[in-house]
Amino acid sequence: MSELRPKKTVQKILISTTSRFIGEYEADGMLITHALSGFAGTPNLPTTLTENPLCRNSFIISFETPPMEKDPLALPDYSVVGDRWCTYLSILFGKRFDNHGLVEGIGFFRLPQFEHYSTLCNPRLPQNNHSPRKDLEIELDLKLVSLVERLIVNRNLEPQFVQFLRSAGRFYLQALQTFERQPETAYLNLITCGEILSNYYNHEYEKEDLLDDETKSLLGGIEKCCQDGPKIAKQVRGRLMQVKRRFVKTVLKLLNDYFFTHSESTEPLWCLRKENMELRIAAAYDLRSCYVHSGIDFGVWVSLWANHGLEVQLGTPNIEDQRFQKSLTDAPTFLGLERIMRFCLLRFMHLNGVEIDARLADTQPEQPNPGDVSRPTSEP
Questions:
Q1: How confident is the model at residue 216 (pLDDT cuts 50, 70, 90)?
Q2: CA atoms 270, 273, 275, 276: torsion sign
Q3: Would you state the pLDDT for residue 289?
Q4: 3-class DSSP string for 335-367
Q5: pLDDT by residue (tens digit) across 228-252?
Q6: By C-alpha distance, which of 47, 57, 58, 46 is closest to 19?
Q7: 314-327 in b/e burial notation, b at 16+ Cβ within 10 A?
Q8: Residue 336 · residue 309 · CB < 8 Å
Q9: DSSP string spanning 253-276?
């Protein structure tokens, strides 16, 4: 009866999403396929096929691992593979994914976690609905997992790139998971995502590039004011404005012209625009600083128009603190910042060997990329 027991070299993880996907993904030693839900033997189709607050579609990730040495001191925990796949899938499709843990691992049956199945979602949000995201229109088909398979299968990628992508992507996914309950935390997670990406490009920036003109002028005055002026200015230059300026420069670097042509918003007035993008990115970081240093709540303002797809604020928030008011007025909403960070992550992947779509390149094709031949049109 040993053939009925889980194999030590086959691991199975349960994940789920608030969106609906078709198809499946299969490669050497890897399978991602649907895990059917039901009650009393009857599939619960209305809950899984339609956009509703209880929608939750489940999948099993099954993969092979090398045989273990005899009597290992510590058993490996392969549930982290589910975290990584949820991160990569959320970036690729722009949808929320949750890892519920192992159902079979290293020869044992496992009990996954089910708390997310009782959590309601807002089906009107782009990360929860059943429609492809408007930017690259990547179909919600598991066969398209092949676009990111290099990240886990036959990687052959720069380790530092993978490390930074995984860390930044984890915060992006957490933003999708927490937005409906903790919008401030979700917004800060997106800022952290951008900060991690900016650290990857840190070596490309000269210190002078990370200072604005006013700060450069002040430092020039310090250099001339006393004998130790140059030394003092050098020390101050090494500390001032670097984090924020690096964040802004990196986001601008990773956004290209195509980003501004496709938005989730239906009205031009609600969309992000190229001409004031630097102002809005800087304001988003200022909003983060206001919250960290003063604890002022801002979740209601960045999420106020979420159901209508607004990427920028309408009007000026009625807030007494003028600095905080200006930051809120200029900063993107959560939906705007989410679209910014996802596009940055997608382009970060594309420019480092994980080719997603030609429109993510520095020079875009004249005609929209059809999404490449791997995209099927049929239902399962």
A1: low
A2: positive
A3: 84
A4: HHHHHHHHHHHHHHHHCCCCCCCHHHCCCCCCC
A5: 666 665 655 555 457 888 999 999 9
A6: 57
A7: eeebebeeeebbbb
A8: no
A9: HH--GGGGG--S-SSGGGS--GGG
33 contact partners, CB below 8 Å, separation of at least 6: 24, 25, 26, 59, 60, 62, 142
CA–CA gap between residue 26 and residue 91 (Å, rounded): 20
Amino acid at 25: Y
pLDDT single digits (tens) 119-133:
899 999 999 999 999
Output the pTM of the full model. 0.85
Strands 97-105 and 10-17: antiparallel
The pLDDT-based confidence of 66 (bands split at 50, 70, 90) is: confident
**Average pLDDT of the chain, as a whole number:** 85
The reported pLDDT for the residue numbered 375 is 40
The secondary structure of 278-331, three-state, reads HHHHHHHHHHHHHHHHHCCCCHHHHHCCHHHCCCCCCCCCCCCCHHHHHHHHHC
pLDDT in tens, 358-379: 999 876 555 444 344 344 333 3
- Within a 13 Å sphere around the CA of 150, how many CA atoms are in the beta-carbon half? 15
E strand or H helix at 198: helix 183-200
Q: Specify the pairing of strand 97-105 against strand 25-27.
A: unpaired
pLDDT at 189 over 70: yes
In sequence order, the 6+-apart residues with CB closer than 8 A to the CB of 148 are 88, 89, 91, 92, 349, 354, 356
Q: Which value, to the nearest 10 degrees, does the dihedral of the CA atoms of residues 91, 97, 101, 104 take?
A: -90
| Sign, CA torsion 133/356/203/157 | positive
Query: What's the rounded Cα separation, in Å, for the pair 44 and 349?
Result: 36
Distance CA 307, CA 125 (A): 6
Return all residues near 314 (Cβ < 8 A) that are at least 6 apart: 270, 305
Question: Which residue's entry shows tokens 């929608």?
Answer: 55
Tokens of 53: 């607050």
Q: Under a CB-based contact definition with an 8 Å cutoff, are residues 374 and 147 in contact? A: yes
Q: Is 130 left (phi over 0), alpha (psi -120 to 50) or beta?
A: alpha
Q: Give the mean model confidence (pLDDT) for residues 10-23.
A: 96
